[in-house]
Design goal:
Layout lengths: L1 E2 L20 E7 L12 E7 L7 H51 L2 H16 L3 H21 L4 E3 H19 L3 E7 L9 E3 L4 H11 L7 E11 L2 E8 L7 H6 L4 H14 L4 E8 L5 E11 L1
Parallel strand pairs: 5-7
Antiparallel strand pairs: 1-2, 2-3, 4-6, 7-8, 8-10, 9-10
Helix pairs in contact: 1-7, 2-3, 3-4
Length: 300
């Protein structure tokens, strides 16, 4: 026998097996002999092996159509995801802007402004024009700085400390000998390079003054300490000698001012999920409450 005109092959079996043939058209030619010398006429057989399913034209067309549909679907999903992320980004930016605006209103609360203006009027009534002018100039400077910073989501740490210094100076002028404060910044902190959320510390310092000093019969103090825990983490600690953050008296009187703290929590979450805010009470060995401690940890 021979296949498609190739050389003749001889077998001694009455059965012919052709294995592993590729798809296509074939011509099989056969002849037989009993003695190997006298051969019969050649018989021809035409047959065809159909291509496998994956080689058929309609399969190629189906796969191409599915590929086009899949690419189109993936492109559509990509566009949808990009648009969704853009919407989320716009929403978060809008929310952050609202929080910044709310923060300005919460941190520069009407009580502080009212009391500051009353103090200025008191100085004028006492004919203490020097202190009155100083108080008024510092107050105007603080208002201007706060109006400027509300437009910025982040601010250099040195500018934030300047604003806090002015605020503390104003409160000390108002309280006089009843209040003292300390602002301590570690030398390893580069205050010009580090950026933090604007007006971040003021609501906690304000709470320390209003609930740690204004309500106290003895002299009150506030201690603000900034330190690098490692090269990427800034710790801000605010201590006072007030009644304690968890006392019922403090909770009751701080109901209206806690709004600024809650806004700050939201701002911290938007700033970095790794940022943390912890309230605690300092106590003596006998368990007596010595004051409140607020600790902020910020990745920088």
């Amino acid at each position: 026998y021979r296949l498609n005109g190739l050389s003749w092959q001889e077998i001694r079996s009455q059965e012919l097996q052709l294995a592993a043939l590729a798809d296509g058209d074939y011509l099989l030619e056969l002849k037989a002999s009993n003695d190997g010398f006298n051969w019969s006429e050649i018989e021809s057989v035409h047959f065809q092996i159909s291509p496998p399913l994956w080689k058929s034209p309609w399969f190629y067309a189906l796969v191409s159509t599915l590929a086009v549909l899949l690419i189109g679907f993936l492109a559509w999903r990509r566009v949808i995801n990009v648009k969704r992320r853009e919407r989320e980004k716009r929403y978060l930016q809008k929310k952050l802007t609202e929080l910044e605006q709310q923060a300005l209103g919460a941190m520069m609360n009407p009580h502080f402004i009212f009391n500051t203006l009353n103090s200025i009027q008191h100085f004028f009534n006492q004919h203490d024009t020097a202190d009155a002018n100083e108080y008024l100039a510092r107050f105007a400077q603080l208002i201007r700085l706060n109006m400027e910073v509300v437009q910025k989501p982040l601010t250099p740490l040195d500018e934030e400390l300047d604003r806090l210094q002015i605020y503390l100076d104003l409160e000390q002028l108002r309280f006089g000998d009843k209040m003292s404060y300390q602002l301590e910044v570690s030398l390893e902190i580069d205050t010009e390079e580090i950026m933090i959320p604007a007006m971040l510390m003021q609501p906690f310092v304000e709470n320390a003054i209003w609930h740690g000093i204004a309500q106290s019969k003895t002299k009150g103090w506030v201690h603000v300490q900034l330190k690098m825990l490692d090269e990427d983490t800034l710790r801000i600690r605010i201590d006072d000698n007030g009644p304690g953050v968890f006392s019922s008296q403090f909770v009751k009187k701080s109901a209206h001012t806690s709004r600024g703290v809650e806004i700050t929590r939201s701002r911290l979450h938007h700033y970095s999920p790794k940022a943390s805010l912890i309230f605690s009470e300092r106590k003596s060995e006998l368990g007596e409450v010595l004051g409140t401690q607020v600790e902020l940890r910020l990745p920088v």
